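Minutes, project check-in
Item: structure for the 341-residue chain
Input as provided by the requester:
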Amino acid sequence: MLMNTLSNVDPQIVPKYRIGAIAKMSGVAIATLRVWQRRYGVVQPQKSSGGQRLFDDDDLTKLKCIKELIDLGFAIGTLAHLKLDELKSLKEKTLINRGFSLPAEMDSGPLRILVVGAGLQDRLTGLNHVNDVNVPKIKVEQVYADLNEALELHSITKPSQGAGLLACVVKLNTLQLQNLKPIQSLQEQMKGAAFGVIYNYANPEVVASLQGMKIELLPNPFETTDLIEFIQKLNSTALRSHEGEALPPHVRRFTAQDLEFIARFGSSVGCECPRHIAQIVEQLGSFEQYSRECLSLNPKDQQIHKMLARVASHTLSMFEHALQDVMTHEKIELPVNSERI
């Protein structure tokens, strides 16, 4: 994809992405990119001698950062003329102020990959030279010749327990029904690891089955941009599993039966506070559960749902304590057969 006939090219930063690739990698639609460029001059793509707009890695990083800030509620007019360092600083401050932890990709170490199949290791480690903070660093932990060797040796030579998330990438020439069982067995052995399969030809029924197993798929041949997107998905899956373990569910003080009892009790006295607070606690509990489910299902919006789950959990805890104080004040006692924790 690199062009040899470029005009006004900085030798240190080589433009190499056409607008379709930059749109796919940044998550910003082509039409939106064109409006941003025409109206705000967000990035300054260089042109080949044929007039083709070409973007570089800094353009990609800037567009991704702007997209993330817009998702956090900022307007493009506010962001368009900020430098990349200013955008990163604004993003970091916004995440901290809104209760986020910083993106785990920044401190979780490399994506440790077990490779099954020949001819893939160099292609994967080559991504470490991509100048983009959103592309995880890769460490090939082990290489197996095929699925049979992986199944036989993986239980003997466990991967190290070093820092970093864990994934497995299987490369197959053909993807047929007989491959399903060994892939499933290896996935079970590597419980908690992200799993991906690269293939040349595939039975559509097998593809559908693997998708149902939450396995990322990449048909071969593929461009580097496709491989980057594939690895980013694996990293998000591994991160989602890690984040799910790191964010334990809130321990509820009241059961649904408790809250129903309190709400009925509150309506029989002059003060309506017990009923209203019980309803708030019930709604917050439902929202916290909803946020956690979104955290496990949608890697793209993982950070926002993690923040929402954390805020809901903290607010829920405060309202539960408030409800307990109101119950004491109103002399409300729960039934002795309550199963609350």
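Outcome recorded: The chain has 13 helices and seven strands.
No further action items on this chain.
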